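Recall that a protein's primary structure is simply its ordered list of amino acids. Everything else, from secondary elements to tertiary packing, is in principle encoded there. The following example makes that idea concrete.
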Amino acid sequence: MAGSVAKPAFIKDRGTYRHFPPDIKKCLLGVLDPTQEDIMSKDPCLAVDDHLDPRLTAGPLREIVTPYLETLRAGRYATCTIRIYLDCLAQFGDWVQAEGITASGIDWVLIEHYLRDPHVAPSGLRNGIASTRAALRCMLRLLAPTPMPATDPLTVELAEFDTYLAEVCGLAQATRMGRLRHVGAFLGQVFDGRAPIINQITARQVEGFIADWGSRWRPSALRVVCGSLRSYFRYRATLGDVTVALEAALPRLADWRGVALPKVLSDEEVERFLRAFDRADPIGQRDYAIARCLIDLGLRGHEVTFLTLESVDWRAATLTVPRPKGRRVQRLPLPASTGTAIARYLREGRPQTVHRALFVRHRAPFGTPLGVPAIRNAMTRAFVRCGLGDRFCNTHVLRRTLATRLQRSGASVKEIADLLRHQDLNTARVYVRVDIEALRAVALPWPGSHS
């Protein structure tokens, strides 16, 4: 069509934008020129200027509208995205006001309730659930609500258990949240809102809870649930409760992880994977440097996010991992290939930002630390580009590949466990079975055979 604007490259599915206002939808799909401000002015709440919709300037969220807009602009969000986020904020403000909720009462629980409210979602959200959740996530960072003291007995119990996991066990937040979720589900089922009393829990209730979850969860996930309950029973034992029978009621699930060999990349596949990054592009330089950290040092995805500019000691050629699992700090040798990739990214690719994180975002929110999902997606896309996407994804396969290469080069199980920061040697012993030729040399003849 003559005079039409080409559809933006990021638009892949028109159905994705079915909940957008008509003018915004036309703008995003390239039917209208996105620079035509008069089109957007039909809906006052979408105007990114000093004349904002009264729902924003006079509503319950009026105190954060200005800093919210400044935050989006500082993060270099596109103008269309800012308009959409403001519309999401205005619609949420209407709902909050109708429900009689103040800004201090807004948290993630309330937001998830709003997104799942049958009177609002999914058809009622003009911009879709994904865009609304992203817009409200930015809002929640600005609200910083003051935590209210817990009064619910179950909430108090879980808060004390969380303190134990953090201060005594030294567990990371992600691990603690998983255990709290499992223990909370168990206590909620047993006591149904009443104050938890451990002496009233029976072994039959423990078995019933595991059996119920076992019908819906895989054995590997159910093993994690059993570990969470076992951790809670041991915590209660430190307080004087008798929990031996409850621990004994937890089943010992079969562990089939040692049956198959770990899935790893061959040397040729590693080279193909590393060639999949465009090192002439700043984002490609960043992702390549991350890939080198994963495959040369065996870092976990979340450990990469904790790296800062101060983590690299260029004179000593070391890399400090500040917050791995268990809150241990470890200094690792920095290989020349990894150091070269990081140095090139810092010199040529890393944007100017006030954040000290080593790897930052190159898209909105611009310059903020890179998250685990972004790292995971970058590695998965690289596997697809090099033709390995049907066999590999995520980041952990690179960590297993390093361990396998170390084992084949003659490293001991203890050395592998130390480099990968495993607390239990049994976790690293799986790599002993990878060297098939070495295992054949020590294999005993089959009884009765003549060989």
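Confidence is low (pLDDT under 50) at residues 1-50. Residues 95 and 397 are 45 Å apart (CA to CA).
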